[in-house]
Amino acid sequence: MTVTSEPDLRSPHTADEVAAYVLASAIWAPSVHNTQPWQFTAQGSEITVRTDTSRQLTVADPSGRELLMSCGAALFTGKLAVRSLGYVPETRILPDPADPFLLARLRWRRQAPQTAAEGRLFSQVTRRRTHRGGFEPMPPPAGLIDALRACAARYDTRLRVAVTDQARSALAGITQRADRAERLDSAYARELAAWAPPPGSLRLDGVQASAYPAHPEVTDPYFPGRDFAHGQGWGLPGGPRVSAARYAGVVCLLTTDVDDPTAWVCAGQALQSILLTAAASGVAAALHSQPIEVSWLRAAIRDHLGDGSYPQLLLRLGTVIQSAVSTRRPVPAVLVPHHLNAAG
Ligand SMILES: Cc1cc2nc3c(=O)[nH]c(=O)nc-3n(C[C@H](O)[C@H](O)[C@H](O)COP(=O)(O)O)c2cc1C
Question: How many domains, in total, are found in the chain?
Answer without folding.
Answer: 2
